[in-house]
Design goal:
The chain has helices spanning 303-307, 453-464; strands spanning 5-8, 14-18, 20-24, 35-36, 40-46, 52-57, 63-67, 71-79, 84-93, 101-104, 107-111, 116-122, 127-128, 134-138, 150-155, 165-170, 189-194, 204-205, 210-214, 221-224, 229-234, 241-242, 245-246, 254-260, 274-276, 291-293, 317-319, 325-330, 351-355, 368-372, 374-375, 380-381, 392-396, 410-415, 421-425, 430-436. With 470 residues, it is mainly beta. Strands 10, 11, 12, 13, 14 and 18 form a six-stranded mixed β-sheet that branches. A five-stranded antiparallel β-sheet has the order 3-9-8-7-6, with no helix packed on it. A hairpin with a 5-residue loop joins strand 34 and strand 35. Residues 1-17 and 446-470 have low confidence and may be disordered. It comes from Pluteus cervinus. This is Soluble quino protein glucose dehydrogenase.
Length: 470
């Protein structure tokens, strides 16, 4: 179902704007089908997106997706005569949006490399108010470039007397940025900013935000737990050496870090001077979880300095090097009679992390979604920080040799009200869902070989006329 298409030219037809488009259940297949864990199923709900990154459900169960180069699109589950599947609608056209997305009531927050913008959002009409958005934070882009995504998390107000905040992660300016050791540089940090009604005209400058953590190279994924702790997954450096030895294939580890928002210190998590070992066994280096330095202009920086928790906050858990974690979400469990869809109750309170995958490691690593068993009472991972087995894959590309070009590349994660886990894959332009293997939708995970319904519909329209306007 297409609610508006503009087709021009008698010989070479061009689709200029697609406002609404349906893809039927069972018509959409994985570009590169992953392996799925026991008791689970996975299938694509929508494909053909340009570059889907951050995702967020609104109050009416529409899945909002930052589609890079487009803006924000909404995916809505339909069960009607004109669409029995998932329908896509463009909510916001802004080609500068690149990753971050959050909702606070009717306020939709999105990010560019330099700014965080606020739009007034209507979930019923899947639209934003006309006029320019409000700038909430500005001044985050550096001339040199570097990491350009800005991840957003709303810290809600526990009561009417406390102002809610927006938390923003800003990555480093390049692979190794020596200047980031000084918090005054403003990069490789997480900051937070008070929201309504105190946002100044024109927005906050980045340095006006409260510093939550420094020395975090690129914390693309962030989420809050029930105890007001902020958990983030960090992408560590490439091409690292230790004592003059090239250890980069298996080091440093990617990190799971935590900031206690009940006791904010703005402490350093090590970057750019200190890193975490994943596997340095062949170099007689630190064991997994141990801290080391890759060298510094500061002579006082040593492995011993990095291992001192007064100087560096160590990670709560580590991941294999170069898997590129990009999001983290906690599973709230299944409620009522929703057991036929959601993943197992046994995983309630566990954390899930998307691994985008290495871009140049040999052999490749990542390309999947993992579960971290969680200790609900203590609000920490069950595994210790020196463990290599603190997580397990629930979905992963089956052949690492085909990656990155022939594999899923997970980015955003979001659970719906049925306990299903939705995942965006930017390189393949897909959004897929992970759910119980016996759910009513599980049959759609089977490859049917049928063509994409929206593609067939476009072709049929093109054959009928070169000027149709629907």
């Amino acid at each position: 179902m297409l609610s508006k298409i503009v087709l021009v030219g008698a010989l070479a037809l061009q689709v200029q704007t697609v406002y609404s488009q349906c893809q039927a259940k069972g018509s959409v297949l994985f570009a590169h089908k992953p392996t799925v864990g026991k008791g689970l199923s996975a299938h694509v709900v929508y494909n053909g997106l340009k570059k889907p990154r951050g995702i967020k459900f609104d109050d009416l169960s529409n899945l909002l997706v930052v589609d890079v180069g487009v803006g924000v699109v909404a995916l809505t589950s339909k069960n009607s005569t004109d669409c029995m599947g998932w329908e896509r609608k463009v909510v916001l056209e802004n080609g500068d949006l690149n990753h971050g997305i959050e909702l606070d009531g009717t306020s939709l927050f999105v990010s560019t490399e330099s700014e965080v913008l606020e739009y007034q959002y209507n979930a019923s009409s899947l639209s934003v108010s006309s006029g320019n958005p409000r700038t909430v934070v500005k001044g985050m882009k550096k001339p040199e470039g570097g990491h350009y995504t800005r991840t957003l998390v709303i810290q809600p107000s526990p009561n009417s007397t406390i102002i809610p905040h927006i938390i923003i992660s800003r990555g480093s300016d390049g692979n190794v940025e020596p200047a980031a050791a000084d918090p005054a540089t403003g990069t490789a940090q997480i900051r937070r900013f008070a929201l309504h009604p105190s946002v100044p005209d024109g927005g906050y400058d980045w340095f006006q935000g409260q510093l939550l953590a420094s020395g975090i190279r690129n914390a693309v994924g962030m989420t809050l737990d029930k105890k007001n702790k902020l958990w983030s997954v960090e992408n560590s450096v490439d091409e690292v050496t230790w004592n003059g030895k090239d250890v980069h294939t298996d080091n440093p580890a990617e990190e799971l870090n935590v900031v206690d928002l009940n006791n904010i210190s703005g402490a350093s998590y090590g970057y750019p001077n200190c890193y975490t070992a994943w596997d340095m066994s062949s170099f007689s280096g630190p064991s997994t979880g141990g801290q080391f330095t890759a060298g510094s202009d500061n002579a006082s920086i040593s492995d011993a300095f990095c291992s001192n928790t007064t100087n560096v906050v160590p990670p709560a858990l580590n991941f294999e090097a170069h898997v590129a974690p990009l999001d983290i979400k906690f599973y709230g469990g299944i409620k009522g009679n929703e057991t036929e869809f959601g993943i197992t109750r046994d995983w309630t309170n566990d954390a899930f992390v998307s691994f985008h995958g290495s871009w140049n490691r040999e052999p490749p690593a990542g390309y999947g979604v993992v579960r971290i068993p969680w200790s609900g009472d203590d609000s920490v991972p069950q595994a210790k920080s020196d463990s290599k087995t603190g997580y397990e894959y629930v979905v992963q590309a089956p052949d690492m040799n085909a990656c990155p070009s022939g594999c899923i590349r997970p980015v955003g994660l979001e659970f719906d009200q049925l306990g299903r886990l939705f995942v965006s894959s930017d390189a393949t332009g897909e959004v897929f869902v992970i759910e119980d293997g016996n759910s009513p939708d599980a049959s759609w995970a089977i490859s049917t070989g049928r063509p994409n319904i929206s593609t067939r519909y476009l072709l049929s329209i093109a054959l009928v006329s070169s000027w149709i306007l629907l």
